[in-house]
Recover the amino acids of this structure.
């Protein structure tokens, strides 16, 4: 009976990211990709907007409405709002008339606590799941990056998200070594904000810093120096002001968080058993997550570690795609194993 349901049910793969939430539906691909932001009424905590609409309100809300990033810094900072957000996104994908409830695989940061993990699971059930599996973001990212995770060889995946960076060595479907740091693309933005304030006495917002990072940011020394004009508030006069900033300065501002990520990758390589490390040198480190899109970052990491680095195709979609493929992949794996052992025993 369970198999009958599996054949007709829909499988959802959910990337519950600190910056963005993505949902993959089997047979359809990514159907939701929205910022992990919820706008609520201050006193009543009533939800007024979720996702893209709520992000537009971030830092621009009037007094009675607050825009919350419930998963800020890679941890669930606000459990109640996280639950509401998950239920909202899922309800957008699941029509009420569906007879067979869907199965869901949710990719979450490795560093979340057991209580948070259970709360995520609970929200998915409340949103209408028949079966829920919560898996590590790294594992989902590796599947989504087409890494053959069940092979008996070592693969390293480095997922740089908004609030977290996870570096994992995977072999035979399990994590051999894993390190997660609460540092990602958001810290890149913060480093730019700090730099502009201390060097130019200019206060800029998070969205301006992110825009600067994506447009002229670079981790490796650039061939052509690029420039960009930004606007902010003068820290001394309090008046609005423009400033032209170049890519060399942005790279210098990003040095510290980038070094921290590189060090963590080196540390993980150091914890990897030699045979698996040899495989990684051969195959390269695979990078996923939006933070890995920073220009020149794969090149810099390769230079610093001496190991080839490959940027996955569509790095921001890997976790959702991998979570979406999880049930089928593990089922096929179990089937193959059964056939092999049955053949041996006959
Ligand atoms: N082209 C780009 N260049 C540099 N950074 C980028 C680019 N595109 C996206 N980013 C950054 O990627 C980050 C978001 O990535 P992603 O959606 O993978 O995070 P997340 O999965 O929500 O977070 P986490 O994995 O930490 O929970 C943001 O910090 C964003 O600024
Ligand atoms: Mg992520």
């Amino acid at each position: 009976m369970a198999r009958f349901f599996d054949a007709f049910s829909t499988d959802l793969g959910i990337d519950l990211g600190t910056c963005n939430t993505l949902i993959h539906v089997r047979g359809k691909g990514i159907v939701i990709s929205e910022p992990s932001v919820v706008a609520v009424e201050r006193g009543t905590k009533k939800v007024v907007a979720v996702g893209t609409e709520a992000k537009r309100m971030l830092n621009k809300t009037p007094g009675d409405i607050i825009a919350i990033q419930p998963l800020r810094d890679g941890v669930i900072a606000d459990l109640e709002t996280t639950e509401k957000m998950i239920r909202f996104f899922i309800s957008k994908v699941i029509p009420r008339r569906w007879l067979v409830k869907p199965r869901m695989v949710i990719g979450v940061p490795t560093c979340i606590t057991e209580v948070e993990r259970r709360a995520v699971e609970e929200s998915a059930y409340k949103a209408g799941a028949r079966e829920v599996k919560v898996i590590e973001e790294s594992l989902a990212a590796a599947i989504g990056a087409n890494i053959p995770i069940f092979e008996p060889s070592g693969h390293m995946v480095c997922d740089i998200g908004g609030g977290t960076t996870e570096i994992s060595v995977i072999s035979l479907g399990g994590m051999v070594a894993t390190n997660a740091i609460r540092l990602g693309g958001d810290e890149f933005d913060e480093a730019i904000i700090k730099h502009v304030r201390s060097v130019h006495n200019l206060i800029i917002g998070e969205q301006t810093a992110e825009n600067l990072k994506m447009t002229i940011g670079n981790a490796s020394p650039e061939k052509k120096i690029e420039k960009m004009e930004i606007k902010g508030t003068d820290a001394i006069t309090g008046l609005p002001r423009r400033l032209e900033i170049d890519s060399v300065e942005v790279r210098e501002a990003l040095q510290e968080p980038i070094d921290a990520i590189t060090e963590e990758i080196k540390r993980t390589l150091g914890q990897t058993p030699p045979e698996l490390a040899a495989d990684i040198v051969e195959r390269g480190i695979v990078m996923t997550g939006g933070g890995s899109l920073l220009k020149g970052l794969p090149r810099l990491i390769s230079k610093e570690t001496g190991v080839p680095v490959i940027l996955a195709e569509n790095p921001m979609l890997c976790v959702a795609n991998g979570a979406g493929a999880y049930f089928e992949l593990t089922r096929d794996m179990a089937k193959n194993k059964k056939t092999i052992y049955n053949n041996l025993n006959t």
Summary: The longest strand covers residues 174-181. Residues 15, 17-20, 74, 109, 137, 161-164, 184-186, 210, 213-214, 217, 289-291, 293-294, 316 surround adenosine-5'-triphosphate (ligand 1) (CB under 6 Å). Residues 318-345 form the longest helix (28 residues).
